[in-house]
Design a protein that fits this description.
The structure holds two protein chains of two kinds. By secondary structure, chain A is mostly helical. Chain A has three helices and two strands. The mean pLDDT of chain A is 90. Chain B starts with 8 loop residues before the first helix and ends with a helix. The chains are: A mainly alpha, B alpha/beta.
Chain lengths: 95, 485
Amino acid sequence: MAIDTETVKRIAFLSRLKIEDDKIQATEDEFNKILDWVEQLKEVDTDNVEPLISVNENNLKLRVDEVTEGNQSEAVLANAPMKEYGYFAVPKVVE
Amino acid sequence: MTELTKLTICEAREGLKNKDFTAVELTEAYIKKMDECRKLNAFVCEAPEQALERARASQEKINKGEAGELEGIPLGIKDLFCTKGMATTACSNILKGFVPPYESTVTSKLLDAGANFLGKLNLDEFAMGGSNETSAFGPVVNPWSKDVPLVAGGSSGGSAAAVAADMCAGATGTDTGGSIRQPSAYCGVTGIKPTYGRCSRYGIIAFASSLDQAGPIAKDVRDCAIMLKTMSGYDKRDATSAQVDVPDFEKFLGQDIKGMKIGIPKEYRVDGLNSEVAAYWDKAAELLKARGAEIVEISLPHTQYALATYYIIAPAEASSNLARYDGLRFGNRVDGLHLDDMYINSRTAGFGKEVKRRIMIGTYVLSAGYYDAYYVKAQKVRRLIREDFLRAFDKCDLILTPTAPTPAFPIGDKSMQENPLTMWLNDIFTVSVSLAGLPAMSLPIGLSQSGLPLGMQLVGKAFDEASIFKAASALEKDVDFRSVK
């Protein structure tokens, strides 16, 4: 499944990354090389195989959904590049 | 007095207990060593004053007879563990200036046991890499380098190099596809990735959550046992941490390995395997056999697909985990006209090349239309890889393989830089074990003809680190690498 320039641009946007125009071709080539390489998995017969999501699938337990450590807004905001009135601040989204 | 930084954790603990030296003297010796070895670029953040203050407190505890298991022992911490009040960057520009308001579970267990942190250690950016060259702080230099600077391996390159150069008594590492074991092999030190679930991942900056696992890198097998015992245990803050007992790993050292079955996977005997690596592999098997272990051939037919499987699953999980770096809540923000611009500008400026590559591969394999063809397919092959190991362990107790296909290579090596696939191939012996979630240790086996350390890997059944410690302590004794060094 070779990918094209449009796909590279779309994936970059989905990843919220910018690729300079002069780097798009190189990225596309590299992507195709990697995707060619992972094509080898097609050789493996996985018709009756369940996907493995976690190696300790038998160990996973649900916990109660409750607040354990509340009232920490200062700590939560401590590393924010921009904050105002106890909130994270973002560029204007509504004109 | 012997050089304090040469002591193992076990020896240093004895010395402190017997009042041969104080915790402050021990810490001062390490701080001096950190100064001398700064050109190795192993530490990215040094905390000498904090360390000395803690050393004084430790000495008081020792004097009062209240010493913890690791009281006064100076450790280095991989800069992927959140340390409260101490900058934590994952060696990425996007986390520049991030000071965690909380402590990771593993480091808080070490602190509770009395350990003393000298600072934070270099790694590949977000642990993505096998040579420590993707770090925003630049590569770590392998202490074994002669004329040409060699890589320390990765991603825990700073941890392995710092231990090898006696800049800390032991270090924490994390391993996703070989990041504890491969640098340990390259630097001639001992490191264990325990079973997935053994150590809590809480507070460890996530790369690929279904694979990431913490473990120690230390001077010898005993020190690994000491550190791992403290680092392990169920944590309600990590739903994937296992509710199993943590044995006293030290008690398995030196135990008889007579009758233990050691599996040698026939598929790993590939044509073109480095002949020195192959010869040491045979030698390790011979040494174990001489102690009464039985060598059996096993088959792991799907491991040839492990690398391709890993390079779908790990980037997929990474792309999702790294979505949180948006320049909004923490880390570096680069402004933009709109919210999306701000995200894009911050991420484009903050992430390095390898991280961007993996985020985009991950985004692609998870995107609509490709999810089943790549991601679900890889998860199915992952199950087959794991089942191979389960079947093999019907025939053996441990598996013996080399840790890496070659010794350490030069920093900036062209073939590695030009083709990511060449670099990824260094993980060939470690990645399948990670996918299966099994414990594995790398320990030094000897030197190559060019005088560089080579490592052997011992792989155990899930939660059977005990067998690894038994066999590794036997092998370590017979090889006597520390006197070779």
